[in-house]
Amino acid sequence: MAVKQTAGRDALGEFAPKFAELNDEVLFGQVWSREDKLSLRDRSLVTVVALMAQGLTDSSFRYHLTAAKNNGITRTEIAEILTHAAFYAGWPKAWAAFRMAKEVWAEDAAEDAKAKHQSEMVFPIGASNDGFAQYFSGKSYLAPLSTAQVGIYNVTFEPGCRNNWHIHHAARGGGQILVCVAGRGYYQEWGKAPQELHPGDVVNIPPEVKHWHGAAPDCWFSHLAVEVPGEGTSNE
Fold first, then answer.
1. CA dist., res. 33 & res. 47, Å (int)
2. Contact by Cβ (8 Å): 219, 228
3. Partner of 141 for a Cys bridge, out of 156, 159, 198, 236, CB 3.0 to 4.6 A?
């Protein structure tokens, strides 16, 4: 069902009331509501191409790109639509349209990358790691796999995310083991060069060693964090 439009009345209701009425009641109220003749998705497709062909890549174009996304046109489809239209509307107009489309579908691109990362490992990405967000630069996710006997957690980092320098203290035993399961990341101990990590790599972190770990700038990364049992353990 078409959304009730008030943009005409909001912007031009006093200055051009008839134009505002035609915009809100006829164009968006009558034409866009005729879904039995043409779906909202197809109307969005036609509108986006028509505006691009005129070189009208302004705020109204962004509005219709957002509507197209909400009406079901995917990131892959809009890229193909604009590519096809470029041969008829002109290459410079396509460049301008692509710049705005990338912004509108940016969130979808991130979700696609997250889904691809999930498909590369058997462990779940888990929920947003909000409880420990203050200890990370960037967004991370946490999936508890075992909380009995030995704590095992799947920690996932978005590209560029890492945790702060920290130390696992223990009077006896303790420390942490990282088992890398997907993506590409880094581990660094204080005073040493960073170590690049790939699936299958294992990092043994003794207690009292200052370190950090996280994702490469351009890649998602996940590792299992295994808590080594000990006495008098704490994290700093």
1. 14
2. no
3. 156
